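Quick one: structure for this chain?
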Amino acid sequence: MKDYFGYVGKICVITGAASGMGKAATEMLVDLGARVYALDWTDVNIDGIEKYIHTDLSQKESINQAFQEIPNHIDSFFGIAGVSGAKCDFITTTKIDLISNKYICEEILANRMSEGGSIAFMTSTGGIGWEKEGNKKVYLPVLEAKGWEATVEVLEKSILSQLPGTLGYPFSKLAMNYYVAKLQKEFSSKGIRVNAVLPGSTDTGLKDEFTNMAGGEEELLKHCGYAHRLAQSQEMGKPIVFLNSDMASYISGELMIVDYGSTIEETAQIKEAAATIDLSALLEHIANMKG
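Got it. Here's what it folds into:
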């Protein structure tokens, strides 16, 4: 059979490989013949991977050490790791969900990928509304900062640092969805594609945390369209593996919404739209309370 996906022998780096969507994608990549370097805080027990590398994505030094254990040339990067913020503060959540991806792309992949390479992130439908000016005004200073330290410093000096970790999640996803467009512009001239999958509600190890954040399972299921169930991790792993494959060779800058049609119905006003976060209004409200 012809290798339509083009992963045979390719060096693939994937974060969040120990569980959920990352594990599902890792298993598929191994089956497709990729040489997979799996990064996670938790042990990755998947037969056939090239190497598991213990990595703390909230620490620059840990990321640097991890990439020293990976071949210099990287074909595909999968930024899947993430936390809900329920067990972390805002800064730590944002480091894991946003700043680590930004740092890896700008400081590492920019020098270790070449034409034909591909990058894909797992963001979220929770980041819909990323294009709104009120949201851009809040997250752009973080994305425009240069380097790890400067990026963290912008957050630490902002009122954002006083928000709970659970708001670090939507902040990061809004910024990541914009970042796909920004990075695509920078990398496309090198022949490197950049895309993202925006999952709807999915049954992963974070399900209980997201259920609590949504206000109960009924609220969580409202974002599942006519599927009337949570997605399975494999149903998000498949699209991201596709986006980084040769099968998607002319797809770049795509934010692929995978929620069984829920978002498009809301956009078309076929059903009532879920509320989207307005970061600018939120920060203004907090500032007024403190004032």
